[in-house]
Write a structure and sequence with these properties.
Elements: H1 3-16, E1 20-22, E2 34-36, H2 38-56, E3 61-63, E4 69-71, H3 72-78, H4 80-83, E5 85-90, E6 97-99, H5 100-103, H6 116-125, E7 142-145, E8 149-152, E9 159-163, H7 168-173, H8 175-181, E10 188-197, E11 212-222, E12 238-242, H9 245-248, E13 253-256, H10 257-262, H11 269-284, E14 292-296, E15 308-316, E16 319-330, H12 332-341, E17 348-365, H13 367-374, H14 378-386, E18 397-400, E19 406-409, E20 414-428, E21 431-438, H15 439-450, E22 451-456, E23 459-464, E24 475-479, H16 486-498, E25 505-507, H17 513-522, E26 527-531, H18 533-538, E27 540-545, E28 551-555, H19 556-564
Parallel strand pairs: 3-10, 12-14, 24-25, 24-26
Antiparallel strand pairs: 1-2, 4-9, 5-6, 5-7, 8-9, 10-11, 11-21, 12-13, 14-15, 15-16, 16-21, 17-20, 18-19, 22-23, 26-27, 27-28
């Protein structure tokens, strides 16, 4: 029984049960696009809601929602227009296009950090075959921008734009509003979930590499001179870290977060805190701890603006897959947007512990002389004098004013003075810590880790051991038969449960009760309630637990109280 066979069976089950399906299948499908069916959409919504609640619980992080269409100047400033590329190569025989680094992945430990010449050498020297036709000749690798282009407006008045490749830029655009919202005090953060778009050259591995995908990103703005105080000293569980191989040669280190900080493996404590919080989230939604590791980016792999960056990788049927990236992006993004937008609104104010006394030489204007000489231009001259960063060594000198002309400033027009003033603080550009989550990849691994195959009474049996917080429904109500009032009683119970805030219940009356138990287990519903003849006589139902099929009999009123308090498990 190979892993490939398991993937096939898991994928078939996900499709059959309306969890994950190929998009546009009746038209042949489109690579890199998927549908979430009725069950899958519910799981996705719950995963995202868990993620939102996980990050906003402390009040220092808020949720925003920005457009998915982004004007070109924003993405020029962010670097996406010029640098958001993958190397592409084509088979010289069948013209099939592939990501060059994917073809070379068995011949280099990290091929996506290589340049075009290095990739070409690997393809040629190893005679790598085309996956489609077997040919071994490739065109030179060349960069391809991954963004989907579009237009805002019509005809000649239209503006170039792109479908957003990430949600982060929307949060940088909203920084001034966030700064006001948090009363001009750092640190604070914003989260955003939603669609991202990347025109992948050769999508593969199902949900792992998509052209339209679900993202969840957090931008946390900090003062680098006064970083937030974070305490993860109590986190003693062992995690797997792969520090920069310059020091450890890709060695996997099993260590606690607190020890990793004390030993200097995690040098940035704010980044370490977000690694820890990422770990907590993944465990809470059902990812197995033994299948999580954090890999630090190599120096050649690190984005030019990043000070530190770690990938959180999860092990599944496709091997170790990056699902989260946690980076200290420094002040690059905000500074770049200030530069390209000619704005100075992307800064924060830092108060000094004690005011500083600043001495500065200035040329104090003699307005009684300047006014009559320059008349209408006198205001422009005064403004230009006040903005001088370097004073001339001697007078007279030529002064450039805002209308583009130069005027001569003589010794009788100004007086050289030393001005002293107290400086209470300074403006600076915040740094940004960014955890970026690939929701679809995480959902795939949740399903992969939860999926079990077993046999029961000679029949093959599938089970999704989903955690209750991400199960597509909290309970399912099953009338033993659709007669003698059992169906009506089941529908009434289902309605009572669904009227409770935050609780979802399904109902199923088709086929045998055993078949219905199996269907509920297969999509991960943790609790099944069976309505039978005794229900009508005594007001009790059978409560069945998914994970071990254990059953107990319970009074309906008592059961409803347990459901409302989220404590059904206490019945067992």
């Amino acid at each position: 029984m190979t892993d490939e066979k398991r993937i096939e069976r898991l994928s078939a089950m996900l499709k059959r049960r309306g969890i994950i399906l190929p998009a546009f299948e009746i038209y042949g499908g489109v690579s890199g696009l998927i549908d979430y069916g009725p069950v899958g959409a519910s799981i996705k919504r719950k995963v995202i809601q868990n993620w939102i609640e996980h990050w906003t619980i402390n009040g220092d992080i808020v949720e925003i929602d920005s457009p998915t269409i982004t004007p070109e100047p924003v993405l020029i400033a962010s670097g996406h227009v010029g640098e958001f590329n993958d190397l592409m190569t084509q088979c010289e025989k069948c013209s099939s296009a592939f990501r060059a680094d994917q073809l070379a992945e068995n011949y280099h430990p990290n091929p996506d950090i290589l340049g075009a010449e290095e990739i070409d050498h690997i393809l040629d020297s190893n005679e790598i075959e085309c996956p489609n036709c077997g040919e071994k000749k490739w065109t030179p690798a060349r960069p391809m921008n991954l963004m989907f282009g579009t237009k805002i407006g019509a005809m000649k008045a239209s503006r170039q734009a792109y479908m957003r490749p990430e949600t982060a830029q929307g949060m940088f655009m909203l920084y001034p509003s966030l700064y006001r919202h948090f009363r001009q005090k750092l640190p604070f953060g914003a989260i955003q979930t939603g669609k991202g778009y990347r025109n992948e050259i050769s999508p593969r591995q199902g949900m792992i590499r998509l052209r339209e995908f679900n993202m969840a990103e957090l931008e946390y703005f900090i003062d680098p001179e006064n970083p937030p105080i974070t305490d993860i000293s109590m986190k003693k569980e062992k995690i797997s870290l792969i520090p920069d191989p310059k020091e450890n040669e890709h060695e996997v280190v099993s260590i606690s977060f607190s020890d990793a900080i004390s030993q200097g493996i995690l040098k940035d404590q704010t980044v370490a805190y977000f690694l820890s919080r990422t770990w907590d989230f993944l465990i809470s939604v059902g990812i197995k701890p033994s299948k999580i590791r954090f890999r630090q980016h190599e120096g050649t792999e690190m984005a030019h603006y990043a000070q530190d960056c770690w990938d959180c990788e999860i092990l599944g049927e496709h091997g170790w897959i990056e699902c989260v990236g946690i980076a200290n992006r420094t002040c690059h993004d905000l500074q770049s947007h200030e530069k390209y937008s000619n704005s100075n609104s992307l800064r924060a104010w830092r108060e000094f512990v004690e005011p500083k006394i600043e001495s500065k030489e200035v040329l104090a204007p003699k307005t009684s002389i300047l006014g009559p000489i320059f008349r209408a231009k006198a205001g422009l001259v005064l403004e230009a004098l006040s903005e001088l960063s370097e004073l001339p060594n001697q007078l007279p000198f030529d002064l450039l004013i805002k209308d583009g002309t130069k005027v001569e400033i003589t010794a009788e027009m100004v007086e050289r003075k030393t001005v002293r003033k107290n400086i209470a603080g300074e403006w600076f550009t915040p740094h940004v810590i960014e955890p970026a989550f690939g929701i679809d990849r995480i959902i795939w691994h949740i399903l992969d880790h939860a999926y079990e195959e077993t046999e029961k009474e000679g029949e093959k049996y599938n089970l999704l051991r989903l955690t209750e917080s991400v199960a597509p429904a909290d309970l399912i109500v099953l009338p033993l038969f659709e007669k003698d009032g059992m169906g009506d009683s089941a529908r009434e119970l289902n309605l009572q449960i669904n009227s409770m805030k935050g609780v979802t219940s399904l109902i199923d009356s088709s086929k045998s009760i055993g078949r219905r138990y199996a269907r509920a287990d297969e999509i991960g519903i943790p609790w099944a309630l069976t309505v039978d003849h005794t229900t009508l006589e005594e007001g009790t139902v059978t409560v069945r637990r998914r994970d071990d099929q254990k059953q107990v009999r319970c009074d309906i009123k008592e059961l409803l109280n347990h459901i409302n308090s989220g404590n059904v498990s206490s019945l067992f």
